[in-house]
Specification:
tt1808, chain A; 6-stranded mixed sheet
């Protein structure tokens, strides 16, 4: 698999029907190891081990409906009240993170309501925060810690 700029983690891997799989600790199952999945698993471990996100508060491939169509968010970090704090989009290392990527997750976020958005291809990582005063997203230097995510809350709860 491609080298990433995230910390190196060890993962359980196996071949199933001749195809590589990786164990997803959140979903508690082996999933097909694609380049995008390689990024997702590293980013999930980064959130847990480096940013202090409790494993049970992460949803992977969270299903939702957008414009009448079923969609899936790569990962969503929630608080203990199940309010969404961070929406994460992962791309394969060969895929450039572009304005289209952020347009996609911003559209998804209309349904999810997270205050923070992050996009990564494993080599380049972007994170932004919704500003209630301006109604716009502001880019950050890094993905905040879980404590910082909790303090900021979700868009959904601040608009209630």
């Amino acid at each position: 698999m491609d080298s990433l700029t995230l910390p190196a983690y060890s993962f359980r891997r196996r071949s199933i029907d001749g195809k590589p799989h990786i164990y997803d600790e959140i979903r508690q199952q082996y999933v097909r190891l694609t380049p995008e999945e390689w990024v997702r698993q590293h980013l999930l471990r980064f959130l847990i081990e480096e940013r202090g996100v409790p494993r049970p508060l992460i949803s992977v491939e969270m299903a939702f409906t957008y414009s009448g169509m079923r969609r899936r968010a790569d990962a969503v970090v929630h608080n203990s009240a199940a309010d969404p704090l961070l929406l994460v989009e992962c791309k394969a290392p060969s895929v450039k993170i572009s304005q289209d990527t952020f347009d996609q997750i911003a559209r998804y976020n209309r349904e999810i309501g997270a205050r923070f958005l992050a996009a990564s291809n494993g080599r380049v990582h972007y994170c932004c925060r919704f500003n209630d005063e301006t109604g716009a997203f502001q880019f950050l230097q890094e993905i905040p810690s879980f404590e910082e995510l909790k303090q900021a809350g979700s868009i959904r709860t601040s608009r209630s």
